[in-house]
Amino acid sequence: MYFKMMKRLNLLAGYLVVLCVLLSSCATASFSKYKGVGRVKRYDFYSAQLPDSFDGFRVAFASDFHYESRFTACRLPGMCQALRSLDADVLLLGGDYRGRNGGDVTQLFQALKTVETPCGTYAVMGNHERGQADSLARKAMQATGVHLLEHEVDTLWRGKEYILLCGIRNPFDLKRNGVSPTLALREEDFVLMLVHTPDYVEDVNVSHTDLALAGHTHGGQVSLFRRWTPAHFSKYGNRFLTGLKYNSAGIPVIITNGLGTSRKDVRLFTPSEVVLVVLHKKK
């Protein structure tokens, strides 16, 4: 009896291993035509604050490259093709450019330079930009014309109308950066915030922000139904895991799964992605 039971348990374990492999293969498969990019995720965002001339303005957003982790050199062409396909008016980069085991960020930013937009490319730093990784990223940005925003606000113009783009410096250091630059802005202006972690929009008063874009969570890398994950990239658990969420004040934040991986080079039910946000004037 004992041996029969053990045989059945071993057989069941074998079936479970096969099932997990099959699920993993399906869950990490790319459903986009761009190698290395699991999907292109589109959001349509409506706001009465948006100037008329910015109706239809297209924002491309990519984050958490961790180059090279799972996101290797062979995936750079696919990323660039995906970003160019968005026909964006501006490209925003959300931080974490270099992998934990190193990576040529100059090569990464040279590739991103081929994604040309009318308003250029803007970036913030992530938590992995420390020491050498920080200095290498800054040097690569300067060489490729990327505008680094560190607790700064820039103006994007269309004719005589404009929107404001606010970039947050190290959102984990609230002692130094716990006052949002948006507090000095006008309520009637349309303000787009770029920040590495979505926690910042909950930790800090970000009044006058109309929409925030963030990364950092990787969608959990491994998740079930976009609600549960064993990894914890946020102090708020899975509240800001991925997708369109809102802080306690009702301010919307879009969180991307990003492109690379951290800790473990695996994704399960959390496809890598680039994001397109299309702004619309709310009538």
TrEMBL record:
Electron transport as UniProt keyword: no
One GO-annotated biological process of the protein: lipid A biosynthetic process
GO CC terms in record: membrane
Signal sequence interval, chain numbering: 1-29
SUPFAM superfamilies in the cross-refs: Metallo-dependent phosphatases (SSF56300)
Transmembrane segments: none
Record keyword tRNA processing present: no
A GO MF term: metal ion binding
Organism superkingdom: Bacteria
Pfam families xrefs: Metallophos (PF00149)
Domain Calcineurin-like phosphoesterase: 57-219
Keywords: Hydrolase, Metal-binding, Signal
Name of protein: Ser/Thr phosphatase family protein
Species annotation: Phocaeicola plebeius (strain DSM 17135 / JCM 12973 / CCUG 54634 / M2) (Bacteroides plebeius)
